[in-house]
Amino acid sequence: MTPASVHPIDPIHSLNVTPDVRQLATATTTAPALNRGLAVLAALCQEAPQSLDSLAIRLALPKASVFRFLATLQKIGIVRKTQDKRYEPLWALHPLADERTLMRAAVAQALAALCNATGCTTEWYEPALDGLRLEQQANPDTELCVKVRPGFTRMWSGEFEAVLRLGYAFAPQAPAPAPSLRVFVANGRVESVPEGATAAMLAECRRDRATADIFFNSNGVRRCAAAVFSRGSGAFLGVLALAEGFHFSRRTEQAEYIAMLGRAAASLP
Predict the structure, then answer these.
(1) Residue 9 — pLDDT band, cuts 50, 70, 90?
(2) Is there a contact between 240 and 201 (Cβ–Cβ < 8 Å)?
(3) Phi and psi angles of residue 9, each rounded to the nearest 5 degrees, phi first
(4) On the chain, which terminus has fewer CB atoms closer than 10 Å, C or N?
C-alpha cells in the first residue's frame, strides 16, 4: 500500500488514493488487525456513509470483526456513527507517495519540453528556509551558458532577480525584503533596489504570478519565471524558470517565454 498519513476532516466522502480495500482487508500480514482497520477507514473514505452490512460485504470480513474495528475507530474519534446507524469518517488517508515524486516527474517532462522548444536552460526551484533551491534542470545540446546546477540555492539576500522575486511574493518561508536588496539596472550592472520599488515589484508578481528580468546578469543570463501552485490546496510549490543567455542576434520575445512557462505551470498536477 502507498505510504500514507492521516489527517482530520469534517467529514470527507472521498479519498485521493483508491486502494483495493478488499485486498487490503484480506492481505496476509504480521499485523492483520492493522491492515483491516485501515481497510475499514479507506472504504469509508471512498464512499460514505455506509452501513455495517455493506462494509462487511465490501471488505469480505465477518460482520462482527468489522463492528469491532468501527467501534475502536469511533472511540478514538476517527469514525462517527450517524443517526440512521451508518458510519462516516472524520479522518482521511492521504498518500505521501508521493505527491512530491509525482510532481517532480511531471516537472521533469515540462522542463525537457520547454528546453527543446526554446533552446534555453530550464529550471525548477522549490522554497527553503534560506532561499529557493534549484532541484531540477534541463539543458540544451547546443549551448550551455548557465553555471548553476541542482543543489544551488538562491539566497534571500541575493540579487532581486525573477526567481527570487516570486519567492518573496509567495513563499511562506520568505523573510521581509531587506533594504539591502540589489537588482540589475543594466546588463552586468547591479544597484540597490530603489526605495519603494520592492513593494511595487512584488505586487506585480502576485498579480501576474510570473515575472522576467529585463537585463542580463554578470554571467550573461537573464530569467523568465512563473510561480506554480497546488491544484488542490492552492499552496505555493515552486518556480519554473527559463534562463536565456545573451546573444547579439534577436531571440524570442520574453512575453512569449512567459506565456510558455504559464502554460507549463498550469499543466502540472
Answers:
(1) very low
(2) no
(3) -140, 175
(4) C
Query: Is the per-residue pLDDT at 237 higher than 50?
Result: yes
Q: Are 216 and 102 in contact (CB under 8 A)?
A: no
**pLDDT per residue as tens digits for the range 196-208:** 899 999 999 999 9
Q: Is 18 exposed, middle or buried (0-12, 13-18, 19+ CB in 10 A)?
A: exposed
Distances (CA, A) of 104 to 39, 97, 133, 136, 195: 29, 12, 14, 8, 38
Give the pTM. 0.64
205 CB-near residues (< 8 Å, 6+ apart): 165, 166, 168, 169, 170, 211, 227
Domains in the chain: boundaries: 4-95, 98-267
The domain 4-95 having CATH identifier 3.50.50.60: the answer here is no
Count of residues in the chain: 269
| CATH number of the structural domain 98-267 | 3.30.450.40
Q: Which three cell numbers stand for residue 262?
A: 504559464
Name the phi and psi angles at 222, rounded to 5.
-130, 155
SS3 content of the chain, % helix, strand, coil (to 5): 35, 25, 40
When the pLDDT of each residue in the chain is averaged and rounded to a whole number, the result is 87
The Cα 52–Cα 126 span in angstroms is 45
Q: Whose CA is closest to 235, among 154, 177, 172? A: 172
